[in-house]
Amino acid sequence: MDQQKLRVYLFRIFSFLKWILIPFGICLVISHKIEQTDIPPQATFTFEEHCKFYNYSFEKYTVTTDDDYILSLYRIPGKNPGPPVLLIHGLSNSANCFIVNQCAHPPAFILADQNFDIWLGNCRGSHLSRGHKYWNATIDEQYWDWSFPDIALYDLPAFVSFVKNHTGHEKIGMVGHSQGAAAILWMLGYYPHMKDDLAVGVLIGTSGSIFTSESPYIQFLSSSWLHFLCEVIGINVISDWSDDLFLTKFIQAFPEIAILIAHDLYDIKLNSGLPEHLGTYYHRMRGGTSIKNLKFWRQAVNNQSKNPKLYDYGPEENIKKYGSSNPPSINFMDIETPLAVINGKYDLAVPQKDSLVLKESIKKEKLVFYHDEYPHDHGGLMFSCNMTYFYQDVTQLLKKYLSQ
Ligand SMILES: *[C@@H]1O[C@H](CO)[C@@H](O)[C@H](O)[C@H]1NC(C)=O
Ligand SMILES: *[C@@H]1O[C@H](CO)[C@@H](O)[C@H](O)[C@H]1NC(C)=O
Ligand SMILES: *[C@@H]1O[C@H](CO)[C@@H](O)[C@H](O)[C@H]1NC(C)=O
Ligand SMILES: *[C@@H]1O[C@H](CO)[C@@H](O)[C@H](O)[C@H]1NC(C)=O
Ligand SMILES: CC(=O)N[C@H]1CO[C@H](CO)[C@@H](O)[C@@H]1O
What we know:
Elements: H1 3-35, H2 47-53, E1 59-64, E2 69-76, E3 84-88, H3 107-113, E4 117-121, E5 131-132, H4 148-167, E6 172-177, H5 179-190, E7 198-204, H6 216-221, H7 224-233, E8 237-238, H8 246-253, H9 255-262, H10 268-271, H11 275-285, E9 289-290, H12 291-302, H13 315-322, E10 339-344, H14 352-361, E11 367-374, H15 380-383, H16 388-402
Parallel strand pairs: 3-4, 3-6, 6-7, 7-10, 10-11
Antiparallel strand pairs: 1-2, 2-4, 2-5, 8-9
Helix pairs in contact: 4-5, 7-12, 8-11, 9-11
């Protein structure tokens, strides 16, 4: 081989290799940067550590539902515990969402400071609530055979009953965010007699029946191809919590990308938040939810109805499960408990027009408060740097109805 040929040969090899070496080098540099990124201690606190750090007392209980799920229920009694208030978190989340705000006093602490006895439920599927009498969530597929109506009709009543028994209070207050607020609504629509247990339900950032979410993330989670893909691969749980910190560090290392991705649920500019908080929110907030639950929400999106239905298995299976070819439906007009509806005007996940439908779906005399103009988006209702404005209203409502 003469030198000329060798040179051409080497040149070709190099031209080819650069397509591998350059991206490989870039990946190395990026992953090094991510590895070297520091994350704040709050990002990895447990719920208990978080309470301790901010000097709030913490208690933990377990509650078994009528369908054998074993859930964790947290309590922040505050210094001078008065009437109990039960907080319910949203989709694929956990009780963490009520304490993790990094730039303002978080909701659970605001209410504890006002001498409410704060209880926080962790609904089934959340990584803080994976117990079951018979199934192991890690290995038994059956554990994940549930959807939203099961949270509303089993988890919430179990929490309410436990809190009432433990505190001896006849009636408690409830506050829910997003899916958690919808669960309160469904529970009360299905069990109107629970007016005897609840003094007031405060529904934050929820749409009730009509569900036309404009958030790309929510649309992604409810897309049929995603559910199909998960079924094919055999995944039962999505958006799960993990103790791996790679993505958290990635968010911390590349805040511009994180801000862009978070934008549709939590717009940093709107909420005057700091990019370095995003990693903490991301790590602490993922709870995990079942694919069946996402399928349920797709059904809800597809069958827009003022009287929403329980999970639709198809006519034949419905007869076996429910005794009729159509799933039972919920009528919010049956609700006899005072309700407050609170929404943000920049919320893409629950647009104002959905909120207005909810307003019309509840008996006028039971809708004791309605405000859909708070200057927040969906995440801002929990993590805005200015929580005083609307939490003053929440506190006043709870005081008014719990002192009766
Ligand atoms: C918690 O209390 C300790 C002791 O009183 C105090 O030093 C600390 O600053 C408090 N922490 C917070 C976050 O307020
Ligand atoms: C569930 O199964 C996993 C994997 O086999 C195991 O590590 C875990 O201890 C089990 N959990 C319980 C509560 O038995
Ligand atoms: C609360 O007390 C009632 C009456 O004693 C009992 O039936 C119910 O199971 C209790 N609920 C819980 C969650 O402990
Ligand atoms: C909080 O928001 C309210 C309502 O938008 C506003 O009036 C108030 O000035 C804000 N407070 C701060 C500290 O930004
Ligand atoms: C009860 C009802 O109308 N169910 C329909 C909801 O939408 C799905 C499509 O996602 C239909 O298959 C159901 O029949």
